Amino acid sequence: MTEGCLLPISANRDRFLPYVRLPLPSHEAIFQACNKADTLALAQREGVPIPQTWFVEELTELPALAKTIPYPVVIKPKWSSYWKGDRMTSGGGAAYAFGPDELVEKFRRVHQEIPFPLIQSFVPGRGYGLYALFEEGEPRVLFAHERLRDVRPTGSGSALRRSIPPDPLLTKHAVSLLKALKWHGVAMVEFKWERERSEPVLMEINGRFWNSLPLAIAAGVDFPWLLLQMAQGKPFDDFPAYQTDLLCRWFLGDCRHLFSVLRGRRRDGRSLFRGGARPF
């Protein structure tokens, strides 16, 4: 369930199609969803809010830019997985910077793995995911969750999440993006949102099954089964109802969250989260 599996299959789909059915959108759509820079460009065209983002095209531009932008910022690789030599490897996670020198240092480090990562303003708030099953550009199933705790307290991968009704604004933005891609199959669109203080901001599109899939299944929306029904041309009910306020925990991820919080603030006193354990 990673881009390391999805991208090679999609790129070589002609070799698979004589033998199996592949409920996937076009390879161009998958490529656009996996490339975070392309996803941001799509969101801007569709009027979907995105974090303030800076694109660096020459390393010589970086020191001057680092002195002018507000902090903290996130340094984010354009790809979660990428080809290096003859194999697909992980792009690594995001890095955080609190000042110009730290930004230059960490940007160069990420750049060595994946050239010219994105620089984005840090977006506060909780994470939200809108899960979807699309058929030829039209939504047939929707599900939503709220992330109560992340593996990394700064925001990366959910450790504890809760099923919620699809919020109208989240639904509007996610559906507009997937319709623009003429999506076919499953996807999850991620947002960060400080309710009552801002509007939801797009983080990324996962054009594949997602790690929090067990929550949807436990709540009554079995996306793998529904995808199979659609691929076989069998009928099923659109937009099935599901149980809300259901919690799903990734125990190991939640332990990693706890260890990070217990470590508390950085040595220089700056942090994107509060130190000390807080039970749910």
Q: Could you describe the 3D structure shown?
A:
- With 280 residues, this protein is α+β, with helices and mostly antiparallel strands.
- It folds into two domains: 1-51 and 123-265, ATP-grasp fold, B domain (D-amino Acid Aminotransferase, Chain A, domain 1, 2-Layer Sandwich), CATH 3.30.470.20; 52-122, ATP-grasp fold, A domain (Dna Ligase, domain 1), CATH 3.30.1490.
- The chain has helices at 3-11, 13-16, 27-34, 36-46, 62-66, 100-113, 168-180, 213-219, 223-231, 251-263; strands at 53-55, 73-76, 81-84, 87-90, 95-97, 118-121, 126-135, 138-152, 156-164, 185-193, 201-206, 247-249.
- A six-stranded antiparallel sheet has the order 11-10-7-8-9-12, sandwiched between helices.
- The chain starts with a helix and ends in a 17-residue tail after the last helix.
- The model is unreliable at 274-280 (pLDDT under 50).
What is this entry, summarized?
This protein has helices at 3-11, 13-16, 27-34, 36-46, 62-66, 100-113, 168-180, 213-219, 223-231, 251-263; strands at 53-55, 73-76, 81-84, 87-90, 95-97, 118-121, 126-135, 138-152, 156-164, 185-193, 201-206, 247-249. With 280 residues, the chain is α+β, with helices and mostly antiparallel strands.
